[in-house]
Write a structure and sequence with these properties.
- This protein is mainly β.
- Helices cover 4% and strands 38% of the residues.
- It has a single domain (6-162), classed as Thrombin, subunit H (Beta Barrel), CATH 2.40.10.480.
- The chain starts with 22 loop residues before the first strand and ends in a 5-residue tail after the last strand.
Length: 167
């Protein structure tokens, strides 16, 4: 798409080509693009004009030693949803006010999968996100690592979690 990225070029890392454009979502005539980690922002593009109309940041409540990584975005039920891999949460964002409305912590779900990272600390593995009226769907990027009880099973995992705001 012929989008002029110059208004947000300062957020792109020229040394780390894997540090930008981690997720997209489309809603209300806008394209939302997640700039992953070097300078984490969510870029807003008007789909009619293909012009960058702004950018914003959304932060989880708890901090993370690894900083904020927007790993994926999803548009569902009139809201923007943001997967923050290192915080191990999904944020529900009001697209007009850009305020965090809710936060879903999936740490226990990810820990239960038992992937062995080889690191002494837990890092987020979820990199794919989809949301519907009742569920949050998360997809691992396990980089070929096996799970605890099945070390030879290196397949990624798709997990369906009931939305915490749905009974």
């Amino acid at each position: 798409m012929p989008i002029d990225w110059s208004p947000v070029q300062r957020f792109f890392n020229g040394l780390d080509p894997n540090a930008s454009f981690e997720g997209i979502a489309i809603g209300h005539g806008k394209l939302y693009v997640a700039n992953e980690r070097t300078a984490p922002v969510i870029i807003v593009v008007d789909l009619e004009t293909l012009k960058v109309t702004g950018h914003f940041e959304a932060y989880p409540q708890a901090g993370s030693f690894f900083g904020t990584h927007y790993s994926d975005l999803c548009w569902s039920v009139g809201r923007l949803w943001v997967l923050c891999r290192q915080h191990r949460v999904v944020l529900e964002i009001d697209p007009e006010t850009r305020q965090v409305l809710a936060e879903f912590d999936y740490r226990a779900v990810e820990d239960a999968l038992g992937y062995k990272t080889g690191l002494p600390i837990s890092v987020g593995l979820m990199e794919g996100l989809a949301v519907d009226r009742d569920s949050i769907w998360l997809l691992t990027d396990n980089n070929g690592m096996g799970r605890g009880g099945a070390a030879r099973d290196i397949r990624p995992t798709l997990v369906r979690c009931r939305r915490p705001d749905r009974k």
